[in-house]
Write a structure and sequence with these properties.
With about 220 residues, the chain is an alpha/beta fold. About 35% of the residues lie in helices and about 25% in strands.
Length: about 220
């Protein structure tokens, strides 16, 4: 549990904000120097997400998606804008959202909202989203805030909407990273949080073809 590793909650959030303010607004910056894994990541995500999308009974629509912890819009640009009519972005670092406006190019005109806000404080508009994509940011939330955020995300979904979480998983327990002020949870901890948020796991998949020296990455679809 994060309560065991996060001593001072206010400092946990403010240190993370200070860390990201110093990071260059580039793909490499978003991926901690591993910009070269972006293609593999996006290709894997597209394959995972497309299984749910389409028309007909039970299928997830393609009108609006939300990119959480969006940064400069690496995922918005290559995964979400090509699949959804409108994409909203939310991130705590205003410099990244400013950069997104040029980084996304012409297609960026279909970004509906740039929300500059921590996910711990963010309330998605009820019933607005077909897909809420949350990648490489859950470690910046305490367990309590993560549960509450997921509950609000659930309310933000349209019928047949899904929440997708893609993130690093620890081998065991909850590991603190003092450099960027984040935690890495093992899969049982993530599952427990999802259950507490009242979400069911529809699919779960490990991302293949990542370097050996980084944490394994898991993608989950929930509603
Ligand atoms: C590792 S980067 C990932 C960016 C993007 N998801 C991607 O995969 O390219 C983490 C992002 O989370 C943002 N972030 C950190 N703490 C946050 C918080 N509490 N709420 C919202 N965004 C946060 C940072 O500003 C940064 O853009």
């Amino acid at each position: 549990m994060t309560a065991e590793v996060v001593e001072d909650e206010a400092a946990f959030y403010s240190k993370a904000e200070m860390y990201w303010k110093e990071i260059p607004p580039t793909v490499d910056g978003m991926l901690g120097g591993y910009g070269n894994i972006s293609n593999v990541d996006i290709t894997g995500s597209k394959k995972f997400l497309q299984k749910f999308l389409g028309e007909g009974a039970g299928k997830t629509g393609t009108s609006c998606a939300l990119d959480c912890g969006a940064g400069i819009g690496r995922i918005t640009k290559r995964l979400l804008l090509p699949l959804f009519q409108t994409v909203d972005m939310v991130d705590v670092t205003k410099e990244f959202l400013s950069k997104a406006k040029s980084y996304l190019g012409k297609e960026g005109e279909r970004v509906g909202n740039y929300f500059c806000c921590g996910l711990q404080d963010f309330h998605p508009q009820q019933g607005r989203y077909d897909v809420i994509w949350i990648q490489w940011v859950i470690g910046h939330l305490t367990d309590g805030h993560f549960v509450q955020f997921l509950r609000r995300c659930k309310l933000g979904l349209k019928p047949n909407g899904i929440i997708c979480i893609k993130d690093n998983v620890a081998h065991e327990g909850v590991i603190m990273d003092d450099v960027d002020s984040s935690v890495c949870r093992d899969l049982p901890s993530v599952h427990r949080i999802m259950k507490e948020a009242g979400l069911q796991i529809l699919a779960e998949e490990k991302q293949d073809n990542l370097p050996e020296d980084i944490y394994p990455v898991q993608t989950l679809a929930l509603r």
